Amino acid sequence: MGQSWSRWQQRRGAKTLQELAPHKTPGHEDPLPDLDRDILLTALNNVASYIKKKGGDVTVVAVGGAVNTIHLQSRSVTHDVDFYNNHLTAKDFETPLNGAREAVKKHKSLEEDWFNNRTILFMPRDQCAALTDEALLSARSYSRSLG
């Protein structure tokens, strides 16, 4: 744990997870907004445009409700987009998050933490890199199969 934890902290900074932890704010007890497929696609396109505008090249792996809503279409809404990528540097990590903040300004249905990587808190640390590699490899194979 010690060595891999240190490398993880160097890549992300110890402050990062603390910033991503849910914050209790007034109205937090209110139901989270329902984000449908169209809202999510628009918001993610806004994030992608921001990344491109900043000259970035960042890939994240989406999991959970966003995949069910956008790709599988097995549910009509979700509340957020959970993502991870164990290989992101601190700078790489900030670019999509800043893009997500910009997307909030453009769409009133989005809350501040609609795009987050809190899912990393539930992934075994010793498996994060392997899961990232496997997901990215699968995504490349899937993209090639589409033509």
TrEMBL record:
<feature type="region of interest" description="Disordered">
    <location>
        <begin position="1"/>
        <end position="32"/>
    </location>
</feature>
<protein>
    <submittedName>
        <fullName>Uu.00g021760.m01.CDS01</fullName>
    </submittedName>
</protein>
